[in-house]
Give the backbone structure.
Amino acid sequence: MSGNSQLPVVGMIGAGQLARMTQQSAIALGQSLRVLATGPGDPAALVCSDVRIGTPDDAAALRSFAAGCSAVTLDHEQVPQERLRALADAGVAVHPRPDALLHAQDKLVMRERLTALGLAVPEFAAVREPADVERFAAERGSPVVLKAVRGGYDGRGVWMLDAPDADLVARLLDAGTPLMVERAVPMRRELAALVARSPFGQAAAWPVVETVQERGQCVQVLAPAPGLSEDAALAAQHLALRIATELDVTGLLAVELFEGGSGELVVNELAMRPHNSGHWTIEGSRTSQFEQHLRAVLDYPLGATAPTAPAVVMANVLGAAEAPAMSTDERLHHLFARFPDAKVHLYGKAERPDRKVGHVTFLGDDMTTVRARAALAAAWLSTATWADGWSEHLGEVAARA
């Protein structure tokens, strides 16, 4: 429980790494975040003092959890709409509001709304039978992208199809997976525009970043996006701020974008919570996304978003195909010996292949140099192997010499 009854209590549904890092910002604000965890071993449950056990689909657990909270927000979008609406109807300040959150939960609803607003999204269609995919591909050409309308993330729930696959579509539909199909967008790279908006209507935007993807999963975030013109960056920020206003988003909004070969911006995904593309802000911005989210849901004045260095790179630490024999503690020891300026965030999660178990952040003046150092550090923490062949023993000897 909060040690000071005069301070507001923010409840966060979910207790993953996003809640864990939000707790770090809550401490600085004199608060103790309340989290709804599925168990005591969840990443945020390991560091929060106010932990309630329950699941997002349990109405009684949610009501009990929300009692006494000044605001309730989310670590993830997988909370049933009817449960959030019941909380809002009972007078709980839910941020983002259910009507807004629906656009982050349902890709088809989001595509339809953004199209109605005149914003660029990939060509799309709902899929109710395999013939819908075949018809879409015949009209717009292959390859196409098949997507689960709800629940996909980090490349899950996405299937790139060089040609329609009726058997796959039938299996997914028979399993109850709602589907949509999209035209594969020719693109130069992926960007993300992160903004925050308070119930009062104040808004703030961070520099636009490039998100580097491998096998459908983000591996690096480059802030600011290299080579992005000032006009293009402003256009992306204005686009994100417009979406936040039109959808009445409260809290954080991450807009994932495709940048076409001619610089055109196409909206891919929306997230209404702290987001992987904003982890760099912990050290790289005057106000981190986690502190800003707390400020926004409490309707505090928002913080400054200016970067703290010309180049910032966040690299995700992913579980290796085979977990190293070397302990995490020893890997940290060697990492800091080589890169004493590395900023490491570990999430308290067991290692398994491709699982996000942490991230590292580097700051500097030159993006190429900073990016190379971040990549080396993340790979070392994942595999206990230096990708450039550096030897910690020889390196330490050389450094002393």
Q: What stands out?
A: The first strand starts at residue 10 and ends at 13. The CA atoms of residues 17 and 347 lie 6 Å apart. The chain has a mean pLDDT of 94. The two ends are 52 Å apart (CA to CA).
